[in-house]
Amino acid sequence: MDLNRASLLIPITTDQTIILSFKLSQARIFDSKRRFEEASKKYHEISLTDQDLAHEERSFCLSASMVCAILAKAGPARTRILRDLYRDNRTRELPNFAILSKMFYNQLIRPDELVEFKKTLKTHHLAKLNNSFAILEEEDDDDNSNSNDDEDRRMIVGEDGESCLRKEQVLRDGPETVLDQSIIQHNLLSTSKLYRNISFRALGKYLGLKPFVVESMVRVMIQENQLRAKIDQVLISNVVLSGSNQKDNTSEKSDRKRLIEILPKSIRWDESIHLTKKKKKKQ
């Protein structure tokens, strides 16, 4: 509220020092409130100012802009910010450029690549999130528990010939921190560039999340226009049909044809007949 009131007085002053201090305050407040897109833009704007700023101060603002861009919600807005920062040659001299570059090119980011990046984050960047995705009916949980445990374990034989069960992967109930959420959303988008369709179970193994959590995250990202995809639970159970983040004019008919290409032959035959009937009706 105080920030909004102060913004009404800024046009009155011509003192560049006051204006710069106000912009820096704006950036820090946006950052603390997790409005990372706005914070990144402000920090980057300050780093490009014509005023006489020390090199260290410009580097600090540019580095803060990169951190906020990485933590921002996935989607077209963040893509534009990443593009501007990647094109800024000064970012190549900063330690977080490797992560920024991977995000810009939609490459998967592994947990071990975040070790050094975490050291540059502030406390609120690593704040714990309320696990809103871990909501599942008890009946479904009981039904799936046995099958999930069987799939997550694999029989291996040791040198002594004795077999044992090994737990392969522990799937989580959702992102735990702000950074975690950002990286999972990014990896989800990156996966959508690699697959035309993928089951929630397979996608969950990529992201280290349980299938029902992945389904919830995908649904939210689609609703918020962060991800262009379709959830199909009719022809194939729990499948995400992923597309480009940029808008296109692909018709329902072409989407259906794309779906036919990856279906089993029996279903593909039925769908081909359906399309043929529609063509004859139009004629």
TrEMBL record:
Any one Gene Ontology cellular component term annotated for this protein: COP9 signalosome
Coiled-coil ranges per UniProt: none
Residue ranges, compositional bias (Acidic residues): 138-150
One Pfam match: PCI
Keyword Cell cycle set for record: no
Keywords from the named record: Signalosome
InterPro entries xref list: PCI_dom, PSMD12/CSN4, WH-like_DNA-bd_sf, WH_DNA-bd_sf
Region ranges (Disordered): 138-158
PCI domain ranges (all copies): 178-234
Entry similarity comment: Belongs to the CSN4 family.
Protein name: COP9 signalosome complex subunit 4
Organism lineage string: Eukaryota, Fungi, Dikarya, Basidiomycota, Pucciniomycotina
